[in-house]
Amino acid sequence: MSSHGKLNNSRIRNRWPLAREGLPFIVISCGVTFLFYYLGLWFLTIFACILSAFIIFFFRDPERKNAANNHAILAPADGRILEIKNIQGDENQASTPSVKVSIFMSVFNVHVNRIPIKSAIKKITYHPGKFFSANLDKASRYNEKNRVVLETSDSRTIILTQIAGLIARRISCWIKEGDRVDAGQRFGLIRFGSRVELYLPGDSQVIVQPCQKVRAGETVIGYLP
Questions:
Q1: Residues 6+ apart with CB under 8 A from 79
Q2: Any catalytic annotation for residue 194?
Q3: pLDDT in tens, 72-90
Q4: Three-state SS letters, 122-172
Q5: Rounded Cα gap, residues 14 and 37, in angstroms
Q6: How many helices (H) and strands (E) does the chain have?
Q7: How far is CA 168 from the centre of its chain?
Q8: 3-state class (DSSP) for residue 92
Q9: Does an H or E element contain 37, and which?
Q10: 90-100 pLDDT, tens per residue?
Q11: Is the dihedral of CA 8, 53, 171, 23 positive or negative?
Q12: Catalytic residue among 52, 102, 140, 194
């Protein structure tokens, strides 16, 4: 296995309470805090200390467990359900009708993304774009995004899209085409404030509601038939 593969595997199976992408931000912010303290700049020290605490909070990566059955579809992100919509194939580049479930991630949510169902990674496509606020409908169409196509063991297709937000400038994806992944497994991260969308088969049973809060890798979004 290449060093790149080892690095991604260490992220997917992270045992730290923090996502490793946050370490440079944490080190820099804490270093600046100590510098201000050393210089006796108390107001700036307090401000930098609060900022450091927020950065640590933002990059938290808690363990998640679930007891969902093989047909359950888990939330891929923490946040609030923005929209549940029946669509035709044009919007998600699939040939069959789908159900779109959109999740908005605020800066206060855990930003590590997780796989919704045991499957194989068929295709990953990155699309550069703009940075509209992630809670707006046009963010789905125009923002920077990373599209992941999953195929279940019974050949059902689920599309998962990571979408950057207004202040998000980085989408991390730790999986690659051909990987076999488990439900609830970490697969990426978006910073800071973003959106994740699921395109499910049209005959899926969706059990969440708009405005409902969900937790990645734990909350059941719905079930495949």
A1: 103, 104, 105, 106, 109, 196, 213, 214
A2: yes
A3: 999 999 999 999 998 876 5
A4: EEEEEECCECCCCCCHHHHHHECEEEEEEECCCCCEEEEEEEECCCCCEEE
A5: 32
A6: 5, 14
A7: 12
A8: helix
A9: helix 23-38
A10: 565 566 788 99
A11: negative
A12: 194
Where does the pLDDT of residue 217 fall: very low under 50, low under 70, confident under 90, or very high at 90 and above? very high
Question: In angstroms, what CA-CA distances link 16 with 13, 19, 63, 112, 205?
Answer: 9, 7, 9, 13, 35
Task: Name the pTM for this structure.
Answer: 0.86
- How far apart CA 101 and CA 86 sit, in angstroms, is 9
Higher pLDDT, 89 or 66: 66
CATH of 72-223, one of 3.10.129.10, 2.70.70.10, 3.90.180.10, 2.40.30.110: 2.70.70.10
**Displacement of CA 121 from its chain's centroid (Å):** 16
Tens-place pLDDT, residues 150-190: 999 889 999 999 988 766 557 888 999 999 999 999 999 88
Whether 51 has a pLDDT exceeding 50, the answer reads: yes
Alpha-carbon distance 144 to 127, whole Å?
A: 6
Q: At what angle do helices 42-58 and 23-38 cross, to 10 degrees?
A: 170
Can you tell me the distance from the alpha carbon of 108 to that of 135, in angstroms, rounded to the nearest whole number? 14
Coil, strand or helix: which one is 73? strand
Nearest one of 125, 123, 147 to 195, comparing CA atoms: 147
User: How far from the centroid of its chain's Cα atoms is residue 39's Cα?
Assistant: 39
Residue 200's pLDDT band, with cuts at 50, 70 and 90, is: very high
Q: What are 54's two structure tokens?
A: 């927020």
Taking 50 as the threshold, does the pLDDT of residue 3 lie above it?
no
